[in-house]
Amino acid sequence: MRSSNPVFSRRGFSRDNGYAGFNTAPQAGYAQGNPYAQNPYANNPYAQQDLQQGAPPQAPVSTGHMTMDDVITRSAMTLGTVAVGAVLAWVLLPVSATSYGLAFGSAIVAMVLALIQSFKRTPSPALILGYAAFEGVFLGVISEMYNSQWSGAPFQAVLGTMAVSGATLLVYKAGWIRVTARYARIGMAIAIAFVVVMAVNLLLVAFGVAENGGLRSFGPLGAIVGIIAILLGAFFLTLDFKQIEDGIAYGAPKNEAWLAAFGLTMTLVWIYVEMLRLVAIFSSND
Questions:
Q1: What is the distance between the alpha carbons of residues 61 and 47, in angstroms, rounded to a whole number?
Q2: How much of the chain is in helix, strand and coil states, percent to nearest 5?
Q3: Cα-Cα-Cα-Cα dihedral sign, residues 181, 119, 194, 143
Q4: Half-sphere exposure of 208 (CA within 13 A, CB side)
Q5: Which residues pair with 253 in a beta bridge?
Q6: How does pLDDT run along the chain (286 residues), one tens digit per residue?
């Protein structure tokens, strides 16, 4: 079972190293793909020497596996790139038709880079940071646009994103949510249905069948849809947390920390954009 993000295309960690997303039977998955799980001293001559001499074996040497520090570092780099791109776009691109065009183009480029990375067997830091940079430009322009109409909306959206992320992490670490295969299947089914409905709604709006944005209007219905979208973002965060946790436990290779950062960034962007819309809806109804 693999984790996924709103683009529904990001694979799990590399199967070549015994891990491909979270598994409800961690010990079995670990033992099948990782020689250190079967015999942690098999490739450690110092441990073999200790065993022959009757001494207790020492811990195996570092094998270049992913750690939480690796995930935090890569995530900081990726999210930092998004933030820098957003700030530069906000400062250098005034609200205009031209900036809207640049935002749309940046979003398309970011989506293409994300899809390319999703289909690659190995993580590419260049693709991931490129995605983050273009995504940042998109976020900077739309944030400035929202701020021009609803002053302070981006700041409130950032706080809201942090609150949702922090609460989700707290609930996950407390064990109140158990990320199982059944939980993931149900959540993914709901998420796919949501995206399909939003795509149909977009087509109806484009052809003039639905007015004022249809389900994405700035009214009570739009607020309900926005809340559902944010809850789906929180769901994706739990999958990301589980995937990272299992990747570390199963010995995913060090460079796959970039995939963890990539996934977290996509999820947080999803939550921020939906939070921005929700703040604008509530501000419009004041």
A1: 9
A2: 75, 0, 25
A3: positive
A4: 0
A5: 65
A6: 444 443 434 445 544 444 444 443 343 333 344 433 344 334 443 334 443 444 444 444 445 899 999 999 999 999 999 999 999 999 998 878 788 899 999 999 999 999 999 998 889 999 999 999 999 999 999 999 999 999 999 999 999 999 999 999 999 999 999 999 999 999 999 999 999 999 999 999 988 888 888 889 888 999 999 999 999 999 999 999 999 999 999 989 999 999 999 999 999 999 999 999 999 999 987 6
Both structure tokens of 199:
């795509």
**Alpha-carbon distances of 185 from 69, 176, 182, 189, 201, rounded to whole Å:** 30, 18, 5, 6, 24
- Distance from C-alpha of 240 to C-alpha of 259, rounded to nearest angstrom: 10
Beta-ladder partners of 9: none
Structure letter (DSSP) for residue 146: H
Alpha helix (H) residue ranges in the chain = 26-33, 35-38, 45-52, 68-92, 97-119, 125-149, 153-173, 181-206, 220-250, 257-284
CB 91 within 8 A of CB 282: no
